[in-house]
Every structure is written in C-alpha cells, then in structure tokens.
Design brief:
By secondary structure, this protein is of the alpha/beta class. About 45% of the residues lie in helices and about 20% in strands.
C-alpha cells in the first residue's frame, strides 16, 4: 500500500503528540489538525483517505456535522465514551473503526491496551492501522457494542472517580464535624499499605484525566451509574452497618470468585507494598531527614580533598555541564560543604583519563561514573579501574534526568533526522526511543564523546542541527540549546554510581 493520506484531528493533544503522530508520521501523508488550523486546512483534511478523531466526544459532531463522506474514506474515532457516536458517524457515509486506548499517552507500547468497539469494517486502512498497533505489541480486547463499552467504562473508570468524590467530601466533612484539621500529608506519614494504595489511586484518578472527561464519567456515560451510587449511599445510611458481618463475608467470597492465576492476589499485595514504601520514602525518609537525594555508600572528609593551602585540582569524567560535573558539584557542596573557590576542575572527558591523571599526580582527586541503573556497568570505566592503582575516597549514586537537547531552530522531535549521543546515555533511553520515536534513527558516538561535549559541539555547528543529543538540563543552559524533552530515560528511578578517588 502506498502512503495513505491521514488527517489527525486533535494533533496537539497528548494522544496526538505522543502516540498517534509518532506512529503515523513515517507511514502516511499526515495532516495535523487542531483548533488553530485554518478553515482551508480543515476543509482539505476532510478529503483525506482516513480521518482520525482524537478529540472529546462532544467535539465530533462539530467536525462531521451535516457532511457526507465517500464510502472509500475511513473514520477512526478513539473517544473515551461512545454515547451517541455510532448514530452521528453512521450519517457520514464513511466506514467507521471505533477504538479506545485505555492507558493514555505515556504508557510504553508493549503495555498499551486498546479496546476494539463493535465490528471492524472491511476497509483496507482499518486493517492497516490495526497492523501498525500489533507491530507495537499492543494488547487488544474486543467489545461487542458501544453500549457495552460505555457500561463497562462507567464502572472501571466511574467507580474510581466516585471514590475520589467520597474521599474528598469525607475529609472535608470530618474536619467540619470534629473541628480538627486533618491534612493528607499527616495521614501519609502514618500510612498503612492499603491507605497508601488508595491515595495513589486518588492522585492518579484526579490528575490523569481532563475535567470534562471526569465529569462525563460521573454523570453522563451510563444512565444507571449515578442512580446506583445514590441507592448505595442511601442503603448504607439506612441499614448496611446493622448487618456488617455478612457483608464483609460476602466481600471476601466475591474476591475468591475471580478467575485468575494463583499469584494474582499476592502480586496485588506486592504492588500495594510498593506504594506503601514509596509514600514512606517521600514523607518520612526523603521529606524529613534527608537533605539530599544522593545515596552514599562511602564518604570521605573534606580535608582528604584539600591539599594544604592550595586549590584542590579535581579531574572529572566529562566537561562542564556533564552529569559527572553535576555529580561533583552536588557531592562537594551537599555532602562535604566545600565552596567552589576551594577547587578547580580539569575536564578529562574519559574515565581512563581521570584514573591516569590520578595515578600520575596530575590531579589531586578524580571522579568518574562506573554504573547506571538503567544500562548497567560502564565497560570503559570498569576496564580502566583494573589498569591503575588508586585509593577510593567516596562512592555515591545520583538520580539522572536524561534530556533531549536540540539546536534552538528545532521545535519538535519530528523535525529531527536522528538521535545522537554517548552510547551509555543512549542505552539509558533505548526503550523510550523504541516506544515513542521508533522511526527516528539512533546514532551512537564513541565512548570519548561526553554528553556535555556533544551539546557543545552541537552549538558550535560541528554536529548537524537536525540531530537531537542526550544531556543534562544544565548543559542546555550552558550551551544555549533547546531543552526539547525531559525524562527520556526508561528506568523511572534512573541513577548513576560515581566514585571519587585519589592517588594511592
């Protein structure tokens, strides 16, 4: 099949930007349409082979109202609720494929689940689009009709929404009734595993959907949902707690009726425990007792790095703006209380250069990276560690925020011809790149190409301005580059281990 013409309505929304545009950009003649598009651009878009509607349900009629399309055209709608949509789209005369991406735009492709609603039309572009998704290892679940879809949706999404309404009103009412002001932070400092998971659900539910969609889920998708909620609250008031024992027993029986593997419930408990540990780390360990997020395994004294009355010369694995530069500055100030006027930095780029300079006495101490949580050990550093003698002064781990930096003229990832960077930086982002921008080539530099050095060379015109490089936010500021995307590392707890050494 030659590249079809596809009009993407809602191209600036998160689904449009992060899922549909990367999926289609290299496989179709893609026309991006949003609220700021001109009337002529919208008119041309309506003649495309395929129209993808990535817009709120209520906006669909405004796009297709009173229009007749060719039977050879396909409309793909991915609206969260389908109420009235089948009737509206049937009047257009086009073939219609109804889908619902359940995860939202920020879940890796291989973990995405898309619901197919109703029959798949016998249209080649419908099969073509589903094939693109299958190649991304997307999971599919078929639902027979729009009515069944909205029934299930009202429960799986409406119940969490109603839970947030209940929790919010309960805490407000409790404050009023008791005269005591209870903050969510106070509850989380003494949280239990179940409550931590409940709050995780609350925060995710409130923050992950637009207000218009949340309103639809509570009041509009299924006519029985709100009435059943009223009936339940009324029965609780009138009689439920008079017969709480059989109710609790029935709850347990219903759980055991779920047809699932034996490890289903233990795995849920494991995830709940992770929420619990996370809340404790944030509100107790991280929030109250720690002044730094550096994880220290060995710590030296500041005196061991200050040779008499002269400046300490520190060799760094990289140049100014590199992650090792950041690691040294944070280590020296946050952990040792050193001032910047107490040392000078030697930009040695490569870990082997750092260890060689330490060994020969060219620097008083050196710092280098040797392992990362998302990419493993740094082979070049590990090999160099076996070649030179040194004394280990400190060992610590620092969180890494890997960013895509571009020339200031680049405004979108899709203007890039390639990604370029240090092989270790690329390996920390390989899953993200494969999932979000699989059609953009990835070019690995040599190990001598530090992240900040690539930023410097990009600004100087020695790297093509159509290439995106991987470095820190500080490198963007230092070298006048555009910070295009933050947090492209695939490990959510991405961290690098650093060693500080001196001559033995």
């Amino acid at each position: 099949m030659t590249h079809p013409s596809i009009a993407l309505f809602g191209a600036r929304g998160e689904m449009g930007r992060y899922i549909l545009t990367p999926l289609l950009d290299r496989h179709a003649a893609l026309a991006a349409v949003d609220v700021d598009s001109t009337a002529e651009e919208k008119r041309r878009a309506l003649t495309a082979d395929c129209l993808i509607l990535s817009v709120p349900r209520d906006a669909v009629s405004g796009i297709v109202n009173a229009l007749r399309f060719q039977p050879t055209q396909l409309i793909i709608e991915i609206c969260s609720s389908k109420k009235d949509l089948p009737a509206v789209l049937a009047c257009t005369g086009a073939a219609v494929l109804s889908l619902h991406p359940m995860n939202g735009p920020h879940t890796p492709w291989a973990q995405q689940k898309w619901v197919i609603v109703g029959d798949v039309p016998a249209h080649p572009l419908a099969q073509w689009f589903l094939k693109l998704l299958r190649e991304k290892q997307v999971l599919f679940h078929a639902i027979r009709s729009a009515e069944e879809h909205d029934l299930l949706l009202s429960l799986i999404l409406g119940l969490p929404e109603m839970m947030t309404v209940f929790m919010f009103h309960f805490l407000e009412q409790f404050r009023s009734d008791s005269g005591q002001h209870v903050r969510m932070e106070d509850l989380l400092k003494v949280t239990s595993p179940a409550f931590a998971s409940l709050v995780s659900t609350y925060i995710h539910t409130v923050c992950s959907s637009a207000p218009w969609l949340r309103k639809q889920l509570l009041t509009d998708i299924h006519p029985q949902f709100l009435q059943t909620c009223r009936n339940v609250f009324q029965s609780l008031l009138e009689e439920q707690f008079d017969r709480i024992d059989p109710f609790l027993q029935k709850q347990l029986e219903r759980i055991h009726e779920i047809q699932a593997p034996d490890e289903f419930i233990p795995t849920i408990r494991q995830h709940v425990t992770e929420d619990f540990n996370f809340m404790n780390a944030i509100f107790l360990r991280g929030g109250l007792t720690s002044k730094t997020d550096l994880y220290v395994q060995k710590l030296c004294t500041r005196e061991s790095l200050l040779p008499g009355n002269k400046l300490s010369r520190i060799g760094i694995h990289g140049i100014q703006g590199s992650f090792t530069d950041e690691a040294w500055r944070r280590f020296s100030s946050e952990l040792l209380g050193m001032r910047e006027d107490e040392y000078e930095l030697a930009e040695l780029v490569h870990s082997a250069n750092v260890l060689r300079a330490v060994h020969t006495g060219e620097v008083d101490a050196g710092i280098f990276a040797f392992a990362n949580s998302g990419s493993g050990g740094y082979l070049a550093s590990i090999e160099a560690m076996g070649e030179y003698d040194y004394r280990l002064l400190a060992l610590f781990t620092m969180p890494i925020n890997m960013c895509i930096l571009t020339h200031p003229s680049i405004e979108s990832v899709h203007q890039l011809e390639a990604f370029f960077g240090h092989p270790v930086a690329l390996s920390q982002c390989r899953k993200t790149l494969a999932q979000r921008w699989p059609d953009i080539p990835v070019e690995a530099a040599t190990d001598a190409m530090d992240t900040a050095l690539s930023a410097k060379l990009l600004r100087e015109g020695k790297i093509s301005p159509t290439k995106g490089i991987f470095a820190s936010k500080r490198a963007a500021e230092l070298y006048g580059l555009r910070l295009l995307v933050e947090g492209v590392h695939h490990d959510p707890n991405n961290a690098t281990a650093f060693a500080v050494v001196r001559k033995k």
